[in-house]
Amino acid sequence: MKSRNVFQKNFNVKTALAFLVLSFISIIIFSYSIYNASLSIIENEDINHIEDSLEQSSANISAYLEKMKSFSNIIAMHPDIKKALEKSDKKALESISSLVGLAKDSDIRIRSITVVSKEGFAITGGASMTMPLSENMMEEEWYKNALYSDRMPVLASTGHGVFTMDKEDWIISIAREIKGDNNEHLGVVLIDVSYKFIEDYLSKLNLGSGGYSAIISKQGDIIYYPDISIFEDNERSGELVNFVKEESIQPHTEKTVKKYIEFKNKKLYKTEITNSQWILYGFSSQDNIKLLKHNLFRSISVYALFTLFVSIIIGIFLSYYLTVPLRKLTLAMTRADKTWEHIKVPKGASYEVNTLSDEYNNLIDRIKILTKNISQKEEARRIFEIKVLQSQINPHFLYNTLDTILWLAELGENERVAQVSSNLGKMLRVSLNTEQTFVRLGTELEHTRSYLEIQKARYEDMLNYNIEDSAQTGILDLYVPKLIIQPIVENAIYHGIRKVGTGMINIDYKNENGILVINVSDNGAGFVIKNQENIYEDKTKHSSTIKPKLGGIGLKNVSQRIKLLCGDEYGLDIKSEPGKGTKVTVRIKYMADLQEAEALK
Fold first, then answer.
1. Structural domain span for residue 110
2. Strand runs (DSSP E) across 397-551, as ranges?
3. Terminus-to-terminus CA distance in the chain, angstroms?
4. Residue 469 belongs to some domain of the structure
5. Which of 202, 240, 449, 601 has the fewest Cβ atoms surrounding its Cβ within 10 A?
């Protein structure tokens, strides 16, 4: 509980904790913002990279197709093409054959270049002619397909026969119609390119682990897909085609649609391939993004933890630096509580600390004034109380003493009258001297002896006493508050011995570990002590506890004076037992010098 209170009250800890909490919240917010911003940048960079790669691949394929179209245009528009197809000019035929051969040899991907007239005459370059020829080529299916393709590339098998699943036989065919001067149909130029050229360009695409690309025509025909089994799986191919068709409903003017959607845990990108009716699709895997997210989160977490650690160090240092003046001020205040001196302002202290120091010093000045006034009043009151307590005289004792003197005088006991009168005079001199607070122990014992002699003159053999001599040197010269033994003896006579008829009072004294100890014991009636603290309080007449009180100066009086003069650790200790007597032990500060004793006042 104590440590908890210290923690709650320690400004240094509070400052460090507040800085830590603020830093923690700031770091969390900042890290979260950095994470989101970085993630957005990474995702955008990934999107841009894929889009750029996709567009580049599309541009490469488009450029290659444009090159093939250029070849077909050159051949179809050559001045000698008409003569060559009509077989009317041998030189023209050689020229076209040479041109076809040069075009074929210029690119290893070209499987074949074929020029076919509508009457079935063909000029070939590369692979041997495998397509069927006839005098009316418009009746041949492959010829019509080539003619109607309108210079757009199409996927076919070598020979333009039945499509097979042998990818080595796959070709991309580009046809160009040959027209005469009057725009009449003369034939076609057919360029067959190896299917592998598409794979060569798309292999450079980086779509992540598990990512892939696809080419689908606007008519819904799959041109390219990494897994060729899709070409004979109508369900899979239909699902893919239907999906991309749905995504292609909205018209767009840009080459690349600047958005992506989820498709089987892949992000879909698409771009048109010019010079064709194809669309290139990229299905990007999310594994790279997930890995980047993980690495980014880990990096930012490490950064956040490191920043938090640095913030803790800075917070501790800062709180220590900020609270040094306050702690110095607190320490100075703690010391000032004991000395009541002005505190010095710590070096480099803030305006608030300076103000607090000034106010505290002003408070000390006011406390000093108040304390001085209170001390003066308390000292005056204490001296007054001591004098009042010292001046109390039991009127009954004085009356009884005078009565004893009268009684002795009537009996003619002049010597005893003189002795009693002398003892009474000694007592009155000590009692009525209010200026004298301390007396020597020997003087106090003589005063007590005078009192006992007066009482013995009255009670005669009923009262006996003994004042022991101490073997300790100089003990009788010690100073004690006056009138502290006689009231105890008086209490022993009136409340002890007189109740049993006869008795003995014994007084001894000694120096015990620097404390003067005086014992006054009697073998009188004794009484029951229920509570040592309340032994001086008045009791009702029905109480079974005897009230140890004198007619004049009681035990409470003696105890109060000792405590006022010597301190609360000194005073009386009373032990009593009914039928056996009472022992009162007086403990007084050891005072060998009168100046030391008077200083206690």
1. 77-198
2. 438-440, 463-467, 479-481, 503-512, 515-522
3. 43
4. yes
5. 601
